[in-house]
Structures are given as structure tokens and as C-alpha cells.
Amino acid sequence: MEAIQTHNEKPTFETVLAALDKVGADLRETNAGFREIREIQKKTSKQMKETDRQMKETDRQMKETDRQMKETDRQMKETDRRLGMYENRYGKMLEHMVKPTLVKGFNELGFEVTRAGQNFKIFDAKNNIFTEVDYILEDGDKVIIVEAKSKLTTEDVTDHVERMRKVKAHAELRGDKRIYLGAIAGLIINDNERDFALKNGFYVIQPSGKAFAITVPEGAYAPKEW
Q1: What was the pLDDT predicted at 61?
Q2: At residue 197, does pLDDT exceed 80?
Q3: How far apart (Å, rounded) are the C-alpha atoms in residues 5 and 14?
Q4: Domain 92-221: which topology?
């Protein structure tokens, strides 16, 4: 079998120089790639640091917002506590001022009050009737249910309508056939609330000079009987 011989050409100065130029170009291209990678790494590192800073700032702001919300909640609770104290004081003051007026005032309107009670509660679980009455005045076949508020609102009037319904229903369940009338007393009663109470058939008891006066629903808004 005939052997095959290969002959390697001897490198020349030109081929060596060309090879070196090629290696140099490859190295320069590689270095340029490395520099580009380093720039990308620098930019990425900078962006990550900025993102981290923003996240820390956001976390700080969230903690500050949470602190402010807790402080606001604390202040609101403190305000509610103080309002509750003031309302209790007004309520006691109102009871002290209104109580002497009730019997005398309604008797001057033609009633003959023989009994007067205060802070009466109905707790009828069997018939699901629950309510509280501030004052109750009894005149033979008539009963006057009085609700007292420091500052009257239309919602208070609506609530008293519902209270009257419950009181009457409880009375009928016990065989009480008397006529029930409603009245609302207040230290502060604006005209709108006053008119709303009168339209619902309630007597309105409010300050007049150094005492309290009772306004009777008149005309189309006569005292409502339950």
C-alpha cells in the first residue's frame, strides 16, 4: 500500500505577522466585549442599588404611614372617650334640669300625672322586645314616654318612633290598653329637628329662659297616640 506523505509549508514572516495581527484583533475585540460587559455590570449594579434605596425609602414611608395611622386611631379613641364623658355630663345635667319640669309642665297642659319613673328598661327575650326609656309619666289611662338628648338629631326622633312602637307592643302583650304618648327633651334642639319631632306627633321639651318649655304638636300634627 502506497504511503501518503504530507508536507507542511514553512511559515514566512508575512504569515506570522498576519497571524499575530489576527490574534491582536481578536484580543481587542474580546477586551471591547469585556469592557461592555463591565459597563453593563456597573449600570446593573447602580440600578440595583437605586432600587434597593427606593425599596428602603418605600419601607420607611410605609412605617411612617403606619405610625401616623396608629397615632390618628389613638387620637380618635381619645376624642371618642372625651365625647362620651361630655355626653354623660350633659345627660346628667339634662336629667337634673328636665325632671322637675316634666310633672309640673304636663299637669299645666291638662294632664294629671300620678306616677313618674326614670331609666326604665324593657327586656322581653320571649317576644324579642328590647328598649330603654328615660322617663315615664302615668296619668290614669295615659302614659307619656320621654326621651332626653343633649343635642337632638332627626335620627333620635326616628329612634323614638321605634321605641314607642316597642313600648306599646310590650304593653299590649301584658293587657295594658292605655294610650301611649311620646315626648322628646333636649338641651340643644335646632328648628329642623324640632319641627321633625312635632310632625311625628311628639311633645318637644327644650330650654326657655331659665326653665324648660313644652311645645304641643298642633293642627295637622296633633299628639300621636300609640
Answers
A1: 86
A2: yes
A3: 26
A4: Trna Endonuclease; Chain: A, domain 1 (3.40.1350)
